[in-house]
Amino acid sequence: MTEIYDVEEALTFLQNWPAAARGSPIFQRALNACFAVTIDEGAAEEARNALAAFARIAGVLAKDEPLQRLREADDWARSPTR
Question: What is the pTM of this model?
């Protein structure tokens, strides 16, 4: 189990994701959102939502994530403006 507490840990997690499985748009959105925070070009909340959406779709999100936060992350991931 991997616990992620900040954007640097999120970036490391994503960068260590198997290369063959990195082609999805949701993965790329999570990676880009996390990277943007590290260069002060993005918001941490957006990165968290992107990472949560990716983790949920990838089947690696912990089951103790509050349902409302999962819905917010899913809504964010489906947003065409992201």
Answer: 0.75
